[in-house]
Amino acid sequence: xxxxxxxxxxxxxxxxxxxxxxxxxxxxxxxxxxxxxxxxxxxxxxxxxxxxxxxxxxxxxxxxxxxxxxxxxxxxxxxxxxxxxxxxxxxxxxxxxxxxxxxxxxxxxxxxxxxxxxx
Length: 119
Hints:
Blueprint (H helix, E strand, L loop, with lengths): L2 E5 L2 E4 L4 E8 L8 E6 L5 E7 L6 E3 L7 E6 L4 E6 L8 E7 L9 E2 L3 E6 L1
Parallel strand pairs: 2-11
Antiparallel strand pairs: 1-3, 3-8, 4-5, 4-9, 5-6, 7-8, 9-10, 9-11
């Protein structure tokens, strides 16, 4: 089955850290760029970061630049989002996203993982 599964979310205090993981299965993960997006309650989705298929190019939203680091290991079919100095406004459900390998849908988005930040 083609899928992405994000994990690693939880409750953390402000200025704390979390490391999210995204495990891919059922397709050739290394062919695809990986994005992380998030959606806070009552708000629209927000793009957070992207890493290219080879892992040597990364971009970040201004809101997380300098605090979050995206990475990947294609041999492990996994991407990570290291989040440091978390702020209450970072609280959201986080998703990892790739292009849909089947080409049928615009993208492939796995089940998200909830990050809660207490002030």
